[in-house]
Amino acid sequence: MQCRPKRFSYVQIFHLCTGILDGIKRNMTLYKNKYRVETTRLKGWDYSSAGNYFVTICVKNREHLFGYVAHGEMVLNPYGKIVEQCWFDLPKHYPNIKLDAFRIMPNHIHGIIVIDNGIGDGMIDGMVVETGFKPVSTTNTTNQKHHGLFEFIRALKTFSARRINEMRHSVGETVWQSRFHDHIIRDNSSLERIRKYIINNPKTWDGDLVNK
Questions:
Q1: pLDDT band at residue 147, thresholds of 50, 70 and 90?
Q2: Is the pLDDT of residue 107 over 70?
Q3: Dihedral of alpha carbons 201, 63, 47, 116, sign
Q4: Surface-to-core class of residue 73, CB atoms within 10 Å of its CB (0-12 exposed, 13-18 middle, 19+ buried)
Q5: What CA–CA distance (Å, rounded) separates 105 from 12?
Q6: How many Cβ atoms sit within 10 Å of the Cβ of residue 198?
Q7: Cys-Cys crosslink for 95: which of 37, 125, 139, 183, Cβ 3.0 to 4.6 Å?
Q8: Is residue 5 a part of any domain in this protein?
Q9: The CATH number of the domain where 199 resides is what?
């Protein structure tokens, strides 16, 4: 008998993704009077390996730095537009990255990063993961160095912080929290649920755990 895939309601999708974000709060500790996110890395996992990664990166002290939400829509200010440009510029610097769903919120960002290292990529636990999005980067990755998730996030933080600080005349100021939250997306159903969560994030802003 063929098994039919389980369908999830929007409420179930919301609880799944907010449960992921709740892990951010549970893993925060106080260090030198500053909150930081403890590591959520999966031990033994190669974060330069092919796959889809859901990442959440918060602004330092959760300051509402990138704009505001009005009527369920995110309105980016100049700082938010800098982050947006830096995100979409990543494939210009790293040929093995592709970008999927992405959303900038007032004090954090959500995004799905796809690592594509060539032959066999898109395979997680033997299953092909189709993004459904047109790849941003189509550069041949043969004989290229395979950069990983941490390098991508480091670059995004560095490039955006430098430009933001130049604009607000605050060179050297910290823009982002030192750590970030990641979740390895292991199947297509999870990919679709997380995509919907990211896209609809402005509409659920009032109940977002990162907005607390």
A1: confident
A2: yes
A3: positive
A4: exposed
A5: 22
A6: 20
A7: 139
A8: no
A9: 3.30.70.1290
Number of structural domains the chain divides into: 1
Amino acid identity, position 164: I
40: tokens are 């959520």
Residue at 52 is within a domain = yes
For residue 183, give the nearest of 56, 14, 58, 37 by alpha carbon.
56
8 A C-beta contact, residue 152 and residue 47:
no
The one-letter amino acid code at 5 reads P
Contact 82, 167 (CB under 8 A): yes
Q: Indicate whether 148 belongs to any domain.
A: yes
Structure tokens at 102: 């992405």
CB burial class (10 A; 0-12, 13-18, 19+) of residue 180?
buried
Q: How many Å apart are CA 21 and CA 92, to the nearest integer?
A: 29
Q: In the Cβ-directed half-sphere of 86, how many Cα atoms lie within 13 Å?
A: 21
Please state, rounded to an integer, the average pLDDT across all residues of the chain. Answer: 78
Instruction: Supply the range of the domain harboring residue 47.
Output: 10-211
Q: pTM here? A: 0.71
Phi and psi (nearest 5°) for 192? -65, -40
| Angstrom distance (rounded) from CA 62 to CA 58 | 6
